[in-house]
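Model it.
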Amino acid sequence: MADTGREERILTGISGSPGICIGKAYIVDREGVNVIEKYYIKKDKLQDEIRRFKAAVKTSKDQLASIIKSTSEELREHVDILETHMALYNDKMLYGRTIETIEREMVNAEWALKTVVSEVKVMFQSISDPYLKGRATDIAHVSDRIMRNLVGAGDVDIAAIDKRVILVARDLSPADTSQIQLVRVKGFITDLGGKTSHTGIIARTLGIPSVLGLENATSQIKSDDIIIVDGRAGIVILHPTDKTIALYEDRLQQYEEYRAVITRSSLLPAKTADGVRLYVMGNIELPEEVVSVMDHGGDGVGLFRTEFLYLRRSSFPSQEELYDQYREVVEL
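Modeled.
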């Protein structure tokens, strides 16, 4: 199984979700939208260009609606982030400013969209809060789908993967991760992202190993390369030797045995040796994470990062919506 004749390499990133997986890499190809040409549009053709942009937006929305509809049961609880992306397709920051740029600068839709997204990224770079920075990531994911439809590049269809693989991508959008099927995907690694990104949250929800923020893994790994993902350590081993594979197969078995033991023991009451009952609380960012806390023996919620209820949306939630979210946590 080892990649003979190739030097073993270790790539270091950020732990997205603990666990170990060994297998063949599957490159999520996003080629085709990296080089965008700029050209000018005649005044009498501007409305045609705007209609072309609007058509690409509509196609993108239809694609996302189809993904939402087919999202697996394990990930239904995360559909709201996709619905946030759906709202962004008509957001003035992206949709409105792109149309304004086409009209004002008399340029093609691809260049106008690229210009607007670059401006948005610069605007959010000065913000220190990682969750607010996530808004720029959402816009980048939405714009990428529009751009692919503008240039005629193929869509990324993770649901169509028909073999057991480890995903390797520059980045994975919520729409991408919502298509993951556990019978096909062992784990995933990305150049971008971090523990607080939606990609990391999805990995932990699914319980599959992931390493994020590797920076240049996609330029070093090819499809069908053998790789090892150590999610706890935040490392990826490329072209592992037979000795390394044997070592990690042992570690994988130990990890699975360890998880089985702690899952059983986590449901027991927490008591000190002299019989004092302790209460262990879990920190959550999303209401649905309460289920994981309770499944692992938690007694309740210690910290609810409620800012996430605002930051994963394109508009402020109403008082009634916030009430429903808080009630859901209490009832669970």
